[in-house]
Amino acid sequence: MKIKKFTILTIFATALAMVCLSIQVAFAVAPTIVINDTTPLSYNENDDVTQIDGTAEAKDDDGDSEWDGGTLEVQITTNAEAADELSIPDSKVGNINTNGIDLRDSTTVIGNLNASEGTVTGSTKLTITFNSNATNALVQQVVRAMHYRNTSDDPSINQRVVTFTVTTNAESASDTRRIDVTAVNEPLSIRSKMISTRAE
Q1: Closest Cα to residue 62, out of 27, 105, 23?
Q2: What is the CATH number of the domain that holds 74?
C-alpha cells in the first residue's frame, strides 16, 4: 500500500507540474510600446514631414518571432482633418523604406502595408502587418519612422492625438503623442497678390 500511495503522489505531482507549465505558456507577455516624448509635438503650417517620436520604444519580450503576424497601427484619433498626413519616408530611420504595399529594411520585406507607400490622410488608420523577418529592433525603427505633416494653407489649430497600437498573439499595447499645429499668417503682399490674381 505504501508503494501505491507513493506512486499516486508522484503522478499527482507530475500532473500538477504539467498544469502549471501549461498555464505559464498560455499567459504570453504582451508587447509594449512607449512614446517617450510626452510634450506635444510642435508643427508649423507648411513644415515638411516631421518625425513623431525619434526615441519611441517597441518590443515583445517573448522574442523576435512573436512579430510574425503581429501588427502596428497608427492613427490620428482626435481632431483629424483631411489635410493631415501620416507617412513613412524612406530611410529617415535606419534603412526602413516602402515600396508599394511592402515595408522593407533595405531590400528585405519585413511587412505589408494597408496603404500604398505607407501614407494615409485624415483619420484613416495605417496598419502594418509584420512577417517572419521582423524583429524587435526593426519594429522599433518603424515606430520611430512615423512622420506627420499637414498639407493645408489654412490648417485647423485643434490639437491632434496620434495613437500607436502594437499587437502580437492577440495581446495589445497602445500609447499616444499629441501634436500642436500652428497656423502661419501669410505676408500682406502675398495675400494682396493672391486677391489680385483671383480678380483677373
Answers
A1: 27
A2: 2.60.40.10
- pLDDT at 14 (0 to 100): 55
- 157 located within any domain: yes
> pTM for the whole thing?
0.81
With CA atoms as reference, report the closest residue to 86 among 155, 179, 158.
179
Strands (E), 26-131: 32-34, 41-44, 50-51, 57-59, 71-78, 84-87, 96-99, 102-105, 108-113, 120-121, 126-130
- Output the pLDDT for position 19: 47
**Domain count within the chain:** 1
Percentage of residues in the chain with pLDDT exceeding 70?
79
- The one-character DSSP state at 187 is P
8 phi/psi in degrees, rounded to 5: -65, -45
Three cell numbers written together for 78: 482626435
